[in-house]
Write a structure and sequence with these properties.
- It is a single chain.
- The protein has one helix and seven strands, in the order βββββαββ.
- The chain is mostly beta strands.
- The longest helix is centred in the middle third of the chain and has 5 residues, at 56-60.
- The chain starts with a strand and ends with a strand.
Length: 105
């Protein structure tokens, strides 16, 4: 299988009001992944099916020097949040291909 697109939403700038797609966050489609050949080192690959967009995420869109109950998103890094995914490849005996997982992605 040829490498496939591995898109992500990147935290790009600290908003002063409401987040603005394309400014606060940017959608990056430049990354690819070779599902069959990427080393897993005992891990697994998860295909994200659903990501929850929650109000608390706005509070994470701040300068990292500002302390809060939850860490700030890192500038230039993908947003993280709770989601549901399906395992597409695994080298972990506790997680099998086809398993559905829920957690922080």
């Amino acid at each position: 299988m040829a490498p496939i697109r591995n898109a992500r939403t990147i935290f790009n700038s600290v908003p002063t009001g409401f987040p603005e797609p394309g400014k606060t966050t940017v959608y990056d489609e430049s990354k690819t992944i070779d599902l069959e050949h990427v080393p897993l080192h005992g891990g697994f690959i998860l295909k994200t099916l659903f990501l929850s967009i929650d109000p608390y995420m706005r509070g994470r869109m701040r300068d990292a020097s500002v302390e809060s109950y939850v860490p700030a998103f890192k500038m230039g890094e993908p947003l993280t949040g709770y989601g549901v995914g399906v395992v597409v490849r695994s080298e972990n005996s506790k997680v099998k291909k086809g398993d559905h997982l829920y957690g922080m992605f």
